[in-house]
Hints:
Layout: H1 2-23, H2 28-33, H3 37-41, E1 63-68, E2 74-78, H4 91-101, E3 107-109, H5 112-116, E4 132-134, H6 135-145, H7 148-159, H8 162-175, H9 198-208, H10 212-218, E5 222-225, E6 235-238, E7 257-265, E8 269-278, E9 281-290, H11 300-314, E10 315-319, E11 349-351, E12 356-360, E13 369-374, E14 381-389, E15 392-401, E16 423-425, E17 431-433, H12 439-465, H13 471-483, H14 489-509
Antiparallel strand pairs: 1-2, 1-9, 3-4, 5-6, 7-8, 8-9, 10-12, 11-15, 12-15, 13-14, 14-15, 16-17
Helix pairs in contact: 4-6, 4-7, 4-9, 6-7, 7-8
Amino acid sequence: MKRLYRYTASVLAAALCLSAALSFPASAAVEEYGLTPEERYYMEIQSNSWENWPSGPQVYAESAIVMEASTGTILYAKNIDDQHYPASITKVMTVLLALENCDLDEEVTFSHNAVYSIDYASSHIARDEGEVLTVEECLYAILLESANECSNAIAEHIAGTTEAFAELMNERAAQLGCTNTHFANPHGLPDENHYTSAHDMALILKEAVKHETFRRISSTSRYTLRATNLKDEELLMNNHHYMISAYKTSRFLDDTVFAGKTGYTSVALNTLVTCATRNGMDLLCVTMKSQGSGEQGVPIYTDTANLLDYAGENFQKVNISQNETNFTINQNELFSTGSSFFENTTPMIELDSDGYVILPVGTEFSAASPQLEFVDGDDEVIATLTYTYAGQEVGSTDLLMTGTDIQEFSFQKIDEGDESSDTISQADGTQVRLIKINLRTIGIAAGVIVLAAALIFAGWKLSGSLSINWAPLRTWKRRWSDRNAFGNQNRIRYRSWKRRRKINWKFWKK
């Protein structure tokens, strides 16, 4: 009965769409899209006006961005902050919240609303009310088949209702720095209050690819869903992203692509997010509002392929700690803890070795300008170094407090017969090198130092409190110095008298 109801609903929806299409003139299609494909193609690319920045390709998408995942560096920008309907790339946020709030083996039960609140002509995998899947199985259905009822079920599983889940989506988007986004549902079906931008989608995608599960599921070309409590047969699901799966064509397959999600509605047109590894960089590409041609996958995937080629060929990823020369704080000679013991010194502050900048190929690291910002309230991170090039932020790294590693030493008394040995045997038979310390000698030396310090201190105190006349001593010292001066007559007479006595003594002795 349920299937008959859904079949009837789909037939009625198709009839309504057909009658609407026939009731409008042919020019209405252009009116709906706003701009022709050629007009979108020749729209301004803002990143091409950045000084000393590689010029990027023209694309048919109305908005497009390429971002490097580890640094957040924007490599290509075309109307990246314009608001558009996202269609099914909305599901990247739905999956992100599922990964952050659920275990993969949790069971999800499909409600009546989850199944029947969506248009049956939209993407789904024909689940029924009361059917049970795991969270992981729902995520496969969402990312591969773009299943709208699975998105609803996940939303209700996490937040109770799809409306409450939309609030969570908007809160998370704000936390990620999105400024042109408002979600109204977990699947992306048309709603005038459901929109985002290419830049915001890149920020959401940047967070999603941090999850290995997202990468694994999104990069799967085919997945077989097991039989469930209400379905006796397995279901083969295919990834609809042509650069990952040869579901309908192998023309755009790209083994550097490791994640992605497609989207389409009549108001959003084609939307696409793609993640690929090129030249050591994880590149995030988002295109929005692309009008397709009669040829399969063109120009949607052609745009993305050209953008990934542009980014991979024109940019490089440079490690900051290996190239930074303005800040030598990672060297042992500076910022030492002072806890060096037996020639072992540990630096107190160092640069995070995982910090990178993204620069045009052939650009020296020194061309990037660093800016230091101190961080309060963090026991480990002291400050952040942020780098800019061509007026754009290209990466950052942290200055870390490494702490002081103090070596531990065990002390024991050596038997009199072992004093000449440099090693000692442990219970397990291993030899341990000894550092011998004569406590008696150290004690005597320490006593002498303390006594000398006490005498000096006492003399200083007495000289300040007693009235001692040092004039006779100073007079004697001055006379002694004068008498031994080279031109002093007394010295000359004294030396002559001494010489005569020596001569007379020799004469008498003979």
